[in-house]
Amino acid sequence: MDMALPAKASARKRDTPAHISVITSRDNQWLKRFRACLGGDEVRDGIVGVEGVRLVEAALGSGLPVEALLVSASGERHLARLADLIVPEMQILRTTDRLFAGVADTQTPQGVAALVRPRVGTFEDVLRGVALVVVLAGVQDPGNVGTILRAAEAFGATGAATCSSGGVGTANPLGAKALRASAGSALRLPILHGMSTAILLAQLRVSGVKLYAAVRDGDANLGRQSGGFPPLVRPWEADWKSPVALLVGNEGAGLGEEIVRSCDARVSIPQRESRKMGGVESLNAAMAGSVLLYEAMRQRGVLEI
């Protein structure tokens, strides 16, 4: 049975039909391309693979170029949901559930995937308006990376940047796991990828952006015994209304000492003390970043209370 687009999509431009192909061999070049783009954390030839109806919907609705849409037999049921976002000139590939499972990165694939060309973020993009930039420095867990980017978009950040801390790099925000955790925010939010930490911080400073280093509450006394560390403030004491960059560090080690010393202030989230053995664990990178970004949005008056 030939695959037909839903009426809304097929009727949009009848003189420019969608390019529909049926794939029956696992050696097909399109399947190989999907396998490479969906199965790793690297961007291939400027293309990333997204899988699952929600991520594909986010990709199609982002306005980014979509190279191809791959749909399995069971995944065709999602075409009605995607109909208004499918342009007539889009390359649509149909395959079997078995062949789709061979390229999918998830254990229970939904039968729909796409190849997308993400935008290349620039400094002008991330600093637009009153800048609120989240800098991920050595955040290794792709789930944390994606969650922070999701919070960044939700709480009004103008962009994000990734760099290293203490020789430890940040997980690719466009990798499969980070993309899923971001729920598509990594496609929509302007992101500067893998910049030199020193150059990134220097350019932010030149642009008049204040640098806030997120530190654990247990590090509140850091710098009292040795000079050179910036002052410590609580989230509500920080000035989030001016152009700001929030630096979030590695899950275990936090931000490198050199990075912290180069910032204008350290900001920590107070936690209640526990009488239980070991006390309360500090918030992880994603949770802390989300709390601080929320406070930034609150101060900027975005909330309707």
Task: Give an overview in words.
With 305 residues, this protein is of the alpha/beta class. The radius of gyration is 22 Å and the shape is elongated. Helices cover 30% and strands 17% of the residues.
Strand order of the largest sheet: 8-7-6-11-9-12-10
Annotation, overall tally of beta strands: 12
| Rg, Å, rounded | 22 Å
Gap from first CA to last CA: 54 Å
Helix/strand order, N-terminal first: HEHEHEHEHEHEHEHHEHEEEHEH
Mean pLDDT: 85
Strand and helix map with partners:
Layout: H1 7-10, E1 19-22, H2 29-38, E2 48-51, H3 53-61, E3 66-72, H4 79-82, E4 91-95, H5 97-103, E5 112-116, H6 123-126, E6 132-137, H7 142-154, E7 159-163, H8 176-182, H9 185-188, E8 191-192, H10 197-206, E9 210-214, E10 232-233, E11 244-248, H11 257-261, E12 265-267, H12 285-299
Parallel strand pairs: 1-4, 3-4, 6-7, 6-11, 7-8, 9-11, 9-12, 10-12
Antiparallel strand pairs: 2-5, 3-5
Summarize the structure.
With 305 residues, the chain is α/β, with parallel strands linked by helices.
